[in-house]
Input
Amino acid sequence: MGRQVPLVDYLVLGEQPHLEANECTSCGARYFDRRNACASCGATSFHKAAITTEGELRAYTIVSMAAPGVPVPFVAAVIDCDGTSIRANIINTEPDPENVKLGMKVRLATYTVGTDDEGTEAIGFGFAPLEAPDGNR
Amino acid sequence: MATDDVWILGIHMTKFGKHPDLDTIDLAADAALNALGDGGVSMKDMGVVAAGNLMAANAGIGQQLQKQLGQTGVPVYNVANACATGATALRTAIMAIKAGECDMGLAVGVEKLSGAGLLGGGGMAKADKKVYEPRGRYGSVATIDGRIGTETMPGVFAQVGMEYGHKHGGATFELFARISEKNHAHSTLNPLATYSKKMSLEEIMGDVMIAYPNTRPMCSANCDGAAAAVVVSGSKLKTLDPTQRRRAVKVSASVLTTDPWEEACQVLPNVNTLTRNAADQAYEQSGVSPEDLDLVELHDCFATAELVHYDNLGLCAPGEAVPFFESGATWRDGQKPVNVSGGLESKGHPIAATGIANIWEVCHHLRGEAGDRQIEGATVGLAHVIGLGSACGVHILESAAA
Ligand SMILES: [Zn+2]
Output
């Protein structure tokens, strides 16, 4: 297998892929990119915090019209992972309101975004429903 | 007419729509000159000019406007604040008067936007050789718009409405479409609207889907337009003639807020808390309560947004926006008319003009000059805008007779 890189640096690959945030040491506020000081409390020290890979769908839209080069339709969503909100697509299900339900349980899943000219594979992430819409796991 | 009050003396909006033969300066100058004329004053009377334009924010629109209609050497503040740019320009002129720096000022908002297409979102430029290299704040190796959620405005505001529905129930695709049906129906009485065509629920729901549940007519219309206002101190207004005093509209509250930090606010923009904060401050400043409002122009950049702002502005009990809308309250013949101009979905949304155009609409009713769409006996109104980033402007206006 060739080299793999994550689509974004806050996606940690390996045996158990997960997302990682910069967490304020003082108040626990989480950020996916760097901060000079915490937007919530003003403290200046942060550490890495692993985010749980299961969550609940809190908001979504099905995007049918996007910028050139962005394949549509896709489901853009906000996932509540045990108190940490994540922006992600809902994947591995049909992009329609029958298959995407607010409040449904979802789990982080990874997929290949593409391969570059040097054979490096980019790995992206999304969240997939834990249960089929008819209730079968 | 207390001396420390600030009043709107003159105000104007251009027709919204396509203006292929007018550039940004032409539109701004049209709005400004007509606002000055409406107030019975000239550029020579202005102690400050605040000018808003978003798409060419580095162009110095205020100075260009002076060159177009009067260079008097007074200070110009060029402002850009997303969709709250117009409200920010107005508030800047109001602050200059409140600070005692001058007794009259001009605020202008202008945008050329027709044919601009979808706003927000986009990707990286393509290189000749594809080699994944982490770039930017997220160390991304490829475009993330579309792969990690959406950055398009219709998609962001769709999620805002869906989230409200998830919390409080009842917010279906059809309900959002009915909000749009109302605003399109209202627009038929507004000759300055970009679109003034009534649309049936079936037409709205059956139109091109942009970002579920927002179809095309449920999204604000990109268009060209400008709006301008002349503001005056209470003490100066006392010296003006009776017609000017009678038509003046009191700015009972002028508020601008941004997001206070909350969990998730940097993931999906939180348009709720800063609107609630702005509304609370505006009601406090003015002594007006939501029950007193005769009409409201709120920021329906998408049908999904209008619903949440019923709640955020305190027009209904918390969590009750769906039954409030279903009661018919927000139609022009209801107990709390909302967006009788047709709103951004039909009137149009030339970004920087919007935050003054909605104030023009309210003033028009408070002066009893709104013609066919006059809300009878209106004396108090509220105008709201919100720009992602975020910035929220709320103004409460009262007629001279109130
Ligand atoms: Zn903190």
Q: What stands out?
A: Chain B touches chain A through 47 residues (CB under 8 Å). Residues A 24, 26-27, 29, 38, 40-41, 43 surround zinc ion (CB under 6 Å). Residues 46 and 169 of chain B are 50 Å apart (CA to CA). Chain B is about 35% helix and 15% strand.
